[in-house]
Write a structure and sequence with these properties.
The protein is built from 13 helices and 20 strands. It is of the alpha/beta class and about 425 residues long. The chain has a 10-stranded mixed β-sheet with strand order 9-7-5-2-10-1-11-15-19-20, sandwiched between helices. Strands 14, 16, 17 and 18 form a 4-stranded mixed β-sheet that branches. Strands 3-4 form a two-stranded antiparallel sheet. It is globular. The structure holds guanosine-5'-diphosphate, 6-O-phosphoryl inosine monophosphate and magnesium ion. Guanosine-5'-diphosphate binds next to α1 and β3.
Length: about 425
């Protein structure tokens, strides 16, 4: 079956957008299955840079793109993305699942207020309303795309939802924000007109496409360690970015997934709060941040940077059933005399080989490092592009040793290497279609 899931193996922002764009050239359909506009996926093609929050990155390759039921859709952001793409002359061949939940303006208000109330324990969310929208979904009071297409259903749902939200804002949080039915109704009606022609049964279309042997890519958002179940809870997002999330969020069964690829940077970053065992709070961390332009696509916040974490890698291989790896941003580490890989954690004098559930333990884990020789710094991006045109065997030998060590720790092969933001700065070792 020509279906492949591409997921983040760390804390997000590992270059999923670029990798999906690369593999999408051979695909027929690209599907987003979870998350919302908290995601920021960057694709660089020639002189143009695209930043996607909701629309699957495959749209640039002129593919059919689908927003699955597992995504929480901010209609305003989605509409802006559609308009921007159209203004750039791109064809938007989009299907939005009728079962996807909608982010409403008060979800964003609540996201901000809840964060403020958490005080020192704030998660550092993107304040895009993700948590409050998934909360309503699980509480069975969310608004789905299908609901806004029917006046009666929309009115009835808003009549149930709005008084509760108003009371929560006013009586629980003592907020002066008001939630008016009139405003929410006109918001829904405005965007209904913009999106209604794209709405349909995504699971049905994907199933039919699989039966027709079409090639389908599933594009994950965030990353394994931000997963609500498998991540560093509570410093996580509110969905399941792991590969299993593709089944739930696209409406297909696990037997329909052929290949799973994990995308990881050659180092690690995290934006927002929560433990990061290999974090570098020194000039090496600053150097990686500057050279890797490690500032959030969605919020512009500086990303925390650290050495590559092999414990997290092994965990990601396990909880996603990864078949292969895509290792990105290797150019960023160029020029460092020595590079380090964390192979285990040390806790209370004992070696931990597995990623712990307890944050109290994780926060006290010390990384056990292996030091390897660094590879040359190619200051000109052009030079990396030239290197990417060569074969893997022509890469600097220190870089190959680094990659082989990663493969050994993972127990699975590397499928793709990325040495720059552009499409050309890619060495593909294994095609998936
Ligand atoms: P995503 O959320 O996983 O899609 O990743 P982001 O787009 O948030 O962040 C990755 C950033 O790194 C983007 O600005 C990409 O253009 C850039 N990028 C991707 N791959 C590479 C690479 O191999 N080298 C460099 N220098 N930048 C890269
Ligand atoms: P992409 O798809 C990196 C982080 C936030 C915060 C936590 C919860 O671009 O990799 P949320 O707004 O989801 O409730 O925030 O998750 N976060 C991301 N970090 N990349 C992302 O997406 C992220 N989406 C959410 O910073 O720590
Ligand atoms: Mg991102």
């Amino acid at each position: 079956m020509p279906t492949a899931v591409i997921v983040g193996g760390q804390f997000g922002d590992c270059g999923k957008g670029k990798i999906v764009d690369y593999y999408a050239k051979d695909a027929d359909i690209v599907v987003r299955f979870q998350g919302g506009s908290n995601a920021g996926h960057t694709v660089v093609v020639g002189d143009e840079t695209f930043k996607f929050h909701l629309i699957p990155s495959g749209v640039i390759q002129n593919k059919r793109v689908i927003i699955g039921n597992g995504v929480v859709v901010d209609l305003e952001v989605l509409n802006k993305e559609i308009e921007t793409l159209k203004s750039k002359g791109k064809n938007v061949d989009l299907l939005i699942s009728d079962r996807a939940n909608i982010v409403l303006p008060f979800h964003k208000t609540l996201d901000g207020i809840e964060e403020t109330f958490r005080g020192k324990s704030e998660v550092g969310t993107t304040r895009r309303g993700i948590g409050p929208t998934y909360t309503d979904k699980v509480a069975r009071s969310g608004l789905r795309v299908i609901d806004i297409l029917d006046d009666d259903v929309l009115n009835q749902k808003l009549d149930e939802l709005i008084p509760i939200k108003q009371r929560i804002l006013r009586d629980v949080f003592q907020s002066k924000e008001t939630v008016s039915k009139g405003n929410i109704l006109s918001y829904c009606l405005k965007y209904r007109e913009k999106i209604k022609d794209y709405v349909g049964d995504a699971s049905l279309e994907i199933d039919q496409a699989i039966k027709q042997k079409k090639k389908i890519l599933f594009e994950g958002a965030q990353g394994t360690l931000l997963d609500i179940d498998h991540g560093t809870y509570p410093y996580v997002t509110s969905s399941n970015p792991v590969a299993g999330g593709a089944c739930i969020g696209a409406g297909i069964g696990p037997k329909k997934i052929d290949t799973v690829i994990g995308v990881l940077k050659g180092y690690i970053t995290r934006v927002g709060a929560g433990p990061l065992p290999t974090e570098l709070k020194d000039h090496t961390g600053d150097r990686i941040r500057e050279k890797g332009k490690e500032f959030g696509t969605t919020t512009g916040r500086p990303r925390r940077c650290g050495w590559f974490d092999g414990v997290i890698l092994r965990y990601a291989v396990r909880v996603n059933s990864l078949d292969g790896l895509a290792i990105t941003k290797l150019d960023v580490l160029g020029g460092l005399e020595k590079v380090k890989i964390c192979t285990a954690y040390k806790f209370n004098g004992k070696i931990l080989n597995e990623f712990p559930a307890s944050l109290k333990v994780l926060e006290r884990c010390e990384p056990v490092y292996e030091e390897l020789d660094g590879w040359p710094d190619f200051t000109e991006e052009e030079e990396w592009k030239k290197i990417a045109k060569k074969r893997y065997v022509d890469l600097p030998k220190e870089l190959k040793i680094y990659l082989e060590r990663i493969e050994k720790i993972a127990g699975i092969p590397i499928y793709l290497i990325s040495v720059g933001p552009e499409r050309e700065s890619t060495i593909c070792l294994k095609k998936i279609f």
